[in-house]
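Journal club side-thread
Mid-discussion, someone asked how the predicted structure for our own chain would compare to the paper's figures. Pasting it here so we can look after the session.
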Amino acid sequence: MLRKSTPWRQTLCALAISSLALLACHAKAQLSQAKIEPLEVVTARGVFHFDVEIADSDPARERGLMYRKSLPSDHGMLFDFDMARPVAFWMKNTLIPLDMLFIGADGRVVSIAHDAAPLSETPIDSGGSVRGVLEIAGGRAAQIGAAPGDRVKHRIFPR
């Protein structure tokens, strides 16, 4: 049986649609404000280029790649912690699998977490002190042959 629409229901629907549109605009504005920079990962298979968003503030690091439905294979996010320290990540509210390259202050890969499970609250430990963490699409680290000891070239790491 079809229910007749009332002014009350119409108002609620309009508010819901307006709220969704506002959230979508806010998310798009956050993406457009993200700092995008080039980064290279040097492995035994070659040099691989990525365009990365920089997460260098507490709010940006806390938000990370949450709620993203996709990530191109040549994009990622670089978390900059300003100084080397042990860190742990989780995948809460992250909808896609990710590879995490934990990078020491010298730009060398310390450890790699492969295909981190979406929505998991299990901590993923860096395995040592790191200056940065590069998140890329799940499976990409294996595709490029990334391994501990490989070099990541970006302005936050010494040359």
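Post-session note: The radius of gyration is 19 Å.
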